[in-house]
From TrEMBL:
Keyword Transcription applies: no
Entry coiled-coil feature ranges: none
Biological process terms in GO annotation: tRNA methylation
Family assignment from sequence similarity: Belongs to the class I-like SAM-binding methyltransferase superfamily. RsmB/NOP family.
Biased composition (Basic residues): 1-19
Listed name of the protein: tRNA (cytosine(34)-C(5))-methyltransferase
Provenance organism: Polypedilum vanderplanki (Sleeping chironomid midge)
Domain SAM-dependent MTase RsmB/NOP-type: start-end pairs: 60-408
UniProt-listed PANTHER family: NCL1 YEAST -RELATED NOL1/NOP2/FMU SUN DOMAIN-CONTAINING, RNA CYTOSINE-C(5)-METHYLTRANSFERASE NSUN2-RELATED
Location of region: Disordered: 1-26, 658-688
Comp. bias (Acidic residues): 668-681
Length: 688
């Protein structure tokens, strides 16, 4: 949304095009080489560090060499999650086990899906097969289709199991101000968004999440992830987390965050040069944390230099302002080790050092004093036993380290800044009073404005509606919007020309955007809510966008609503083609009567049964009624209704075989066959 790019500036696509210029046409893609999953130095290093008991070490290494099982979780705040969970357990897993029966004869019990016991409400599941195997197995094509469609529609997220832990330990509530400092690719940010909305009782949360990443390209992966959840309470920024600037609220006060996630960059096996980067991010996070707030520090590394050493350094410098708190009790059923209390840094040639004094002079610029453990006489005050170390063999997962910190008071250097500010104001006051001026006239000299670092593409501005915006009058009249709706929460990404899309954000996000445009690079915010749909016969030139429906549904009047029966909805969901929309005379009498009363254009389709309520954007044509939604949303709703999905459950292996057969036929000089849906397109072209 809102990227001001030159034409054809997609670097990934351009690189592929450039590479193809130099490839022979008959060149076939070589298969990936199998990764060698052994490293003698790695094994020596971690055995010496005693990251796990010696009798478990071989199991630890074996787990590292094995493929990770596929895991996914259901989106918690969506009203349909309960129905979807029933379908997953009663239908999807039955088909999954049936597909595995021939592949793993005699291992049916071992292959059963496992609920992750520490994740709330049975919403997270582990399949006893890797993502790669799911993609490659024809017998599991329905499972693969389910994972793709439901992920795209935002109803599930495919995420490694231990990666789900840090957001859970944040314990986010709907009023919390949250920031994810190193957010890309966005799965943890998605969890924070879910937590904000789960606790909001269907209303727009007062809290929000700022999702940041230093890599400009990865920020757009983050946009893609966050957009699936259609939350107006999310803002994506692009800056160095270790130097994240102060953000200001509407009262020009520095924003302090209630919840901070510092899932910092890590090596995966540990390098000492990362310690400084990780510490800098953790320290900045602590500065931005509200007193009484919570920060979760995490890595996917098992190296104590990147984990406990960072925490010790931060706790030591915080001098009692920060505390590592116990959180393992929140993860019932998860196996893990407590944090390490002793480790030995090593040189590249694996020479280990017990203390900084043992380090040769020439290595002291690489092996710093800060990465050594505290003296054993002081170790208790660091509460390292409260840190969580998840090892691969304990739960059949990746490795992870998590520490939960709470802020008890201002950090020592924060207090120093406050003292200096008070002294400075007093000095200025005294000087000016000596000149006959009163302190009420005194203002501190303006700070020199820092130049905003541009990490990538130049972003379009965020342009908010004014209270008397002319365009809003059109929306309000046509959709009978309530007076409670605040039009100043609507925005566009263009200053001049026709407004194509209108986005909606929460009041809290709006104020951050307005006050901080020059402080940090703003990438994306807001949910598409209205989209231009130029039509000469239309009373309102903007249709509702399904993405934003759940945020403004409560403000839209009854005049643009149509209540449908189950068969009507299934007919609409199975016919998304705008060229051949469902004819209204084929629908129920109730829908036909409502069609007569409502004017042409965008509307809301409403369906309700005992424990299921669905709302979607529709379009009322002269003689038609259709759903105006994405195909993956349609598949999701059909699944919830228990309807036939065979139209969308395409077997990619059969399709590939057909394409190859058609290619062979074509090479032999036979007449090429036109697929059925292409034949329809040809007929339509001829008719026109």
């Amino acid at each position: 949304m809102g990227r001001n790019r030159k034409k054809n500036s997609n670097h990934f696509a351009q690189r592929r095009r450039d590479n193809k210029k130099f490839e022979p046409y008959d060149k076939k893609a070589e298969p990936y080489k199998e990764i060698v999953r052994e490293n003698e130095d790695f094994e020596t290093y971690y055995k010496h560090q005693k990251v796990c008991p010696e009798e478990e070490y071989e199991n630890f290494l074996a787990a590292l060499r094995a493929d990770l099982p596929a895991t996914f979780r259901l989106t918690a705040f969506k009203g349909e999650s309960k129905r979807l969970l029933e379908i997953v357990k009663e239908k999807l897993f039955v088909d999954y086990l049936s597909g595995l029966k021939d592949l793993n004869e005699g291992k049916e019990e071992e292959m059963k899906p496992k609920n992750l016991p520490w994740y709330p409400n049975e919403l997270a599941w582990e399949l006893q097969i890797s993502r790669k195997d799911i993609r490659r197995s024809e017998k599991l094509f329905k499972l693969h289709n389910f994972l793709i469609a439901e992920t795209k529609s935002g109803n599930i997220s495919r995420q490694e199991a231990v990666s789900m832990i840090p957001p859970l330990l944040l314990n986010v509530k709907s009023h919390h101000k949250c920031i994810d400092l190193c957010a890309s690719p966005g799965s943890k940010t998605s969890q924070i968004i879910e937590a904000l909305h789960s606790d909001a009782s269907g209303k727009i949360p007062k809290g929000y999440v700022i999702a940041n990443d230093i890599d400009n390209k990865r920020c757009y992966m983050l946009v893609h992830q966050a957009k699936r959840l259609n939350s107006p309470c999310c803002l994506i920024t692009n800056t160095d987390a270790g130097r994240f600037p102060n953000l200001y609220n509407n009262e020009n006060k520095i924003i302090k965050f209630d919840r901070i996630l510092a899932d910092v960059p890590c090596s995966g096996d540990g390098t000492m040069r990362l310690h400084g980067i990780q510490y800098r991010i953790a320290r900045r996070g602590a500065e931005m944390l509200e007193i009484g707030g919570r920060m979760v520090y995490s890595t996917c590394s098992i190296n104590p230099i990147e984990n406990e050493a960072v925490i010790c350094r931060l706790i030591r410098e915080a001098a009692g302002s920060l505390e590592v708190v116990e959180a393992g009790s929140l993860l019932k059923g998860l196996k893990y080790n407590p944090g390490m209390t002793y480790w030995e840094p090593a040189s590249k040639d694996l020479k280990f050092y017990k203390s900084f004094d043992d380090v040769p002079t020439e290595l002291k610029t690489i092996i710093h004093k800060e990465i050594f453990p505290p003296p054993q006489s002081e170790i208790e005050k660091y509460n390292l036993q409260h840190c969580i170390r998840v090892l691969p063999h304990q739960n059949n997962t990746g490795a992870f380290f998590i520490a939960v910190l709470e802020k008890r008071s201002k950090l020592p250097w924060e207090k120093k800044v406050d003292e200096n500010a008070i002294e400075s104001k007093a000095r200025i006051a005294a000087e000016n009073n000596g000149n006959g001026e009163t302190t009420s006239q005194i203002e501190p000299p303006p700070k020199k404005k820092k130049k905003l670092i541009n990490y990538g593409f130049r972003e379009d501005p965020f342009v908010f509606f004014t209270p008397d915006e002319e365009l809003y009058t059109t929306f309000k009249t046509f959709y009978k919007l309530s007076d409670d709706f605040d039009p100043t929460c609507l925005l566009t990404r263009c200053l001049v020309g026709k407004k194509k899309n209108i986005y909606f954000c929460s009041p809290e996000i709006r104020e951050i955007l307005r006050k901080n445009e020059d402080n940090v690079k703003l990438i994306n915010s807001g949910v598409k809510t209205f989209s231009r749909c130029d039509n000469k016969n239309m009373e309102c030139q903007f249709r509702l966008a399904h993405e934003g429906l759940y945020n403004i549904d409560q403000f839209i009047g009854s005049e643009r609503r149509v209540h449908v029966e189950r068969d009507d909805l299934i007919r609409m969901l199975n016919n998304l083609n705008p060229i051949e929309p469902p004819m209204v005379h084929l629908m129920s009498e109730s829908v036909q009567k409502q069609h007569e009363k409502i004017g042409s254009g965008s509307c809301i389709i409403h369906y309700k049964e005992d424990d299921l309520e669905l709302r979607l954007v529709g379009w009322r044509g002269n003689k038609t009624f259709r759903a105006y939604i994405d195909v993956n949303d349609s598949i999701h709703m059909l699944r919830l209704l228990g309807a036939d999905l065979s139209k969308y459950d395409v077997n990619k292996f059969e399709e590939k075989a057909k394409r190859e057969q058609a290619l062979k036929t074509d090479e032999n000089g036979a007449e090429e066959e036109i697929p059925m849906d292409e034949e329809k397109d040809e007929e339509l072209k001829n008719e026109n």
